[in-house]
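Chapter summary example.
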Amino acid sequence: MKTSSLIGHVVEVLEQVHQGRRPADAVVKQFLRARHYLGSSDRRYIADRTFAILRHHMLLNVYTAEALAALRVPAMSVPAMSVPAMPVPAMPVPAMPVPAMPAPYPPVMMAAAYEIRCAEHPGADPLAEFDPVWRPLLPDIECAAFLESVRTVQIPDDIVNDEERFLAVRTSLPQFVVREWRTRYGREGSRALCETMNAPAPICIRVNTLKCTVGQCREALAQEGITAQPTDLSPSGLVLAKRINAQGLLSFKQGWFEMQDEGSQLLSLLAEVGPDMTVIDACAGGGGKSLHLAALMQNRGRIIAVDVDRLKLNNVAERGARAGATIVTPLAASADAPPEELRDLRADVVLVDAPCSGTGTFRRSPWLKLNLTEEGVHALARTQRELLERYAGFVAPGGRLVYSTCTLLSEENQSVIESFLRDHPDFTPLPACAILARQGIRLEGQDPWLELLPSRTATDGFFGAVMVRSS
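The structure predicted for these 471 residues follows.
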C-alpha cells in the first residue's frame, strides 16, 4: 500500500482514539480487524505510527503550535480535536475531568510533525506522502509550508529554561508526574525514568508451567519463528525479539504461555502461594494474575477471581480453560460491595491489584498520558483505600493481604498503605524484597515495599505491599 494511504489510515485511527472513550489499543485492534485488505507490514506501520504519535503527543503539540505561529495561521482556521474524559476503570471511581492540556491539533498535523521531528526512519518525500491526505482535511493551510515550518522551529525558551517543564514536554509526560518523580528519584533518576517511559516496552510473556517448562516453551516458539530470551528476574518469563500475534501461534492456542509483563509476574510471587490454599483475587480483570497463581499452586486449591466487569470475567473462564487452570472460579461483584458468596469465606491470601492511573505502563499504553490529571489520581486513591477496606476482612488470621498497582505515584501506593495500616493494627507489613529473595530474586534497597522502576529493572512500573494479619 502507498505510504500516503497508510498515513490516511493512521489519521483515521487517531480520530477514533481522540473522539472515543476506549483504550487506544482496543481502537487499533478493532480498526485493523475490520480491514482485511491490509497486509502484515501495513498493519504494523499503522499500529506503530499511531502509538508513536500518541507517545510524543505533548512534544508534537509544541512543534505544531510553533510551526503554525511562524506561518501566522489564525487559531480559528485550525479545527481542534476534542478530548474526552479519562476512561473510568471498572470500579466505582468518579468520572475523570477533561484534562487541562490543550486539545491536540488535527491528527494529520500531528502525524506530519512526528514524521519531520521524531520519526526514526522518516520518509524520502514527506510532501508527496502527506499532501494527498492533507488537502481534503485542511484545504486552507498549505501542506508544504507547514512541513517546512515544523522542520525549523524550536521549543520556546520559556519551556527550555524551565527544567521540569522541559523534561515533561520532551517526554510528553504530565508535569505533575515529572514533579513527583524529580522529588523522589532526583534529577538524574527522574530523567532516566521519564526517558524510559517514553520508549516502547519489551514484549514479555509468562510461561504456563502447568503445561510446559520455560525451556520447552522457548523451543516451541523457536519452531514458530519467534526468538525468545529468559527474563532477568521472573523465573517464568521470556522476552520476545519481536511483537507477535499470539492468537496465531500454536503454542499459545495450546495454553503454553500468556502475554504478561515481567514485573506483573513478580507481584504474584509476593503472595508465596502453595498447593491447597484459598486465594481471593479481588480485582481480577482479565485474570492474568489468577492464572499465574494457579500455576504456582500447581492447580491445587481454590482461587476466586472477582471483578465488577462481567465481560472480563468471561475472558477469565476462557483463558483458564486454555491454560488448564481448573481451580479458578470467576465471581462478579457489584460496584459497591463484594460478592455475597464470599460472606463467610476466609482466605490464605487476598490480592488487591487495584485500578490505578497506570503511570508505570506509559511506555506500553502511551495514550494514558493524554488525559491523566491530579484530580483523577485523587479519585483513584479514594477507591484504592475503599477496596483495601472492603476486602481486608476476608483475610484469615495469619493470612496475607497483597496490594499492588501499576503506577509510580505515592498517593496511590505508599500513602494508601500507610493510611490502611494506621486504621488496621491487626495487619503488619512484611519486607517484599525478602519474600522475593527467598525465591532467588534479588532486588536492592526497596523494603518494606516493592517498587519496580522501568529505568532500573526493564519491567513496567509496579508497586507491591505485603501485609500479614495477626493470628
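To summarize the output: The two ends are 66 Å apart (CA to CA).
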